[in-house]
Specification:
It contains 2 helices and 7 strands. This is S4 domain-containing protein YaaA.
Length: 68
């Protein structure tokens, strides 16, 4: 599991996918989320604006990312 540090109180899911390198474009991140390819804390999430905070775990494409 990769640990990804954020410098703010929270980060939106679509921005996080770009931040950690899972998506190269915002539109790409949006499609992954809308196609139900992303899990947050073991639940499929289709809200691109979902606020993620420290301790949350994002799963995408067989990879897990923990926000620290």
């Amino acid at each position: 599991m990769d640990e990804i540090k954020i410098n703010t109180e929270f980060i939106k899911l679509d921005s996080f996918l770009k931040w950690c390198g899972a998506a190269s474009l915002g539109s790409e991140a949006k499609m992954y989320i809308l196609d139900e390819m992303v899990k947050v804390n073991d639940e499929v999430c289709t809200q691109r604006g979902k606020k993620l905070k420290q301790g949350d775990i994002v799963e995408f494409n067989g990879e897990k990312y923990k926000i620290i």
